[in-house]
Amino acid sequence: MAKIRHNNFLDTVDEVFSNAKREGVLHLFSQDEVLSGRTIKIKGRDLFHFGTTGYLGLEQDERLKRAGMDAIWKLGTQFPLSRTYVSHPLYDEMEEKISRMYGNPVVITKNSTLGHIAVIPTAVRDEDAVILDHQVHWSVQNAVQVLKTRGVPVEMIRHNNLEMLEDKIKELRNKVSKIWYMADGVYSMYGDFAPVKELMRLGKKYPQLHFYFDDVHGMSWRGKNGTGYVMGELEGNLPENVLLIGTLSKTFGASGALMSCSNRDLHRKIKTFGGPLTFSAQLEPASVAAASASADIHLSPEIYVLQEELNSKINYFNDLLEKTQLPLIEKNSSPVFYIGTGMPVTGYNFVKRLMGEGFFVNLGIYPAVPVKNTGVRLTISRHNQNQEMEALVEAMCYHYPKSLEDTHTTPGRVRRAFKMPEKELPNIIAIETNLQVQKENSISKIEKEEWDSVLGGHSTFDWEGLKFLEQVFSNENLPQHNWKFHYFLIKDKTGRIILATFFTEGLWKDDMLAPVSVSLQFEERRKMEPYYMSSKVLALGSLFTEGEHLYLDWNHEEREDALKLFFLHTEDLEQHAGAAMLVLRDFEENNPIAEVFLNKGFIPVTMPESCIMDNLSWKTEEEFVNSLSSRSRRHFKNEVASFVKKFEVEIIDTPTLEKIDQYFELYKNVKEQNFGLNTFTFPRDLFTKMASHPNWEFIVLQLREDIDPRPVRKPVGVMFCYKNLGITYSPSFIGMDYSFSREYNIYRQLLFQTIKRARELKFQQVDLGFSASFEKRKLGARVIPKVAYVQAKDNFSMELMGTVQST
Q1: Distance separating alpha carbons of residues 582 and 573, to the nearest angstrom
Q2: Is the separation of the CB atoms in 704 and 716 below 8 Å?
Q3: Does an H or E element contain 39, and which?
Q4: Is residue 532 part of a domain?
Q5: What is the rounded distance in angstroms from the CA atom of residue 328 to the CA atom of residue 423?
Q6: Could you tell me the keywords of this UniProt record (predicted)?
Q7: Among residues 385, 417, 449, which one ends one of the domains?
């Protein structure tokens, strides 16, 4: 079978960021001639700055500025030489000061991202393993990628979940030497902390456990000598099983990053040969001089005065927020505050409103946070004054409900997205409309003619097809074979349908669209844990159907109101179902509502291409062949026509139980070898019910008796086909005997016989389904790129799959 085209993560991020840029909240430019830290000029307006990561304001300290300028005049703008050969004159003094701060040797790197790339592959040996907190910074996760090529096991746990961490340790401890747990000290989006003291206790329980902390957001404003949150929790003593990454930029006020550890031998190895340390340029003289000046402040009592000033402002801002109904996602003592908005469109609206009031804030958006956990990230620095904080909170209290109203959401819905306690707040959205919403849990409650008038003729989801699916996927023994069906019809006051669709609620494999190598590894685990990495999903359509599951009357003047109602009822349905993921499937690329989906918190995911054969006007096989391109004609002659006479073809409506068993085995052959679209195997009962349904038939291939070497002839291929209203012929899936498939081109023969059968029955088109588009195109099919829109409660499953070695 042909390969499936998988989603490109970078394309997804580009689409999300481009949308935010169009909204005017991302990729902005400062227009200041002189920066003060307190304000920032954007689009011609001076805004109070609540987005800095220079929490202590040292980037504007005159001592650091003078040191940097003096270094440039004396040593130039850079020292263009690798540190492997020679370091410039200021390095030694700066390193010595920072080592004194930590009480241990340090390694200085150009920035923290390069620091991770230098340190992690050197510190982690081939016989070790890594466990990542799933919210650890992207730069750490990126640096770990190289370990997978060396065969180092990489696992992931949910954020700060110590029980899950201990389970992973128990799984790994007899297989590896050291187990490295990697986490942030202070997490950059929500401002929450790693449970350092609890982790140290776990380290004593399991001596193999080592820790790698990225504490760049905890630097300077916490800890002895401003060495950060982690060092503060460790009471200034760095154990041998801890590697610590800090920063010389952000709050430190200069540029660069550092690694500190108490293991002298490991320090030497990292400094001697740590990737970018050997091959990259060193910090510029001005950066080193500024860092040295900042280190002087950190080594003096002044650092505690600065910390206390900032702490006072943090406490004051917390007190202000405590008196509001704003959804602060994590209340703690860090300078990072996150106000949840839920949907990206609400976040865009809120940020623009605050900028209009004179405040600059950051937007927290995918992939830094799950797409439905969009919010406004506020940071407090020593530059901020109490009256500005008061004014910001007042502006937020005024504009937040207006942003919710503008974007058709409620405080309760936002809190639900962040799994926060729902207070006594309005959770009903008023939409002034005369539209009627009909919601049903069975197709039998909807008029047959009404449904088929808008969604008949597609795949297998006409009225009769859905009634069949309801009968099949209910009262089964296994949870993956029991689906709940939900139907929506939205009509105007005259009864005219504006929108129609259906959802199924069921168990999916999280790796359904993952690379084959990932699914193969998961399937090994599923031999012991059948439902490993499986989740309840609410999906447009079903895993049995494909095509345009959403009907929308684009000519109707009330279509936008219909869409609003659709999203509101869908969100309620998702909440009631307790689904981990909501999937809107099978839209063509560049569809007209793509931006609406993005604004509502959906991420586009590339699906396998869909293939449709809608040229069935030919009358003879010769006419069919002549309709193909010259290359496809050669392919047909050599790979299809030359094998036709080797088969006996039967069209069977009501197969015996023995034949159903044979067909089911052929189906399982294909299912068990096709991990490109990794789903659960359908129940055998499906095939029995097909055999008794008038709309299903089976195209069966047998090798001629004089060719088949077996003592008892059996089918070598079967296509399971649904007849939809005389409009669409739908070969829903396939079964093959792989012992003969390559020698006799069984797959291609089944495709041709399916097209031929559809023409005989005078159908208008053949829905050839997903994947194998190269083969289907050669037989004249039209290939349509498809995309799904996914909204997950969190990014854990996606990020976990990213840790699995893909080969």
Answers
A1: 10
A2: no
A3: strand 39-42
A4: yes
A5: 13
A6: Aminotransferase, Transferase
A7: 417
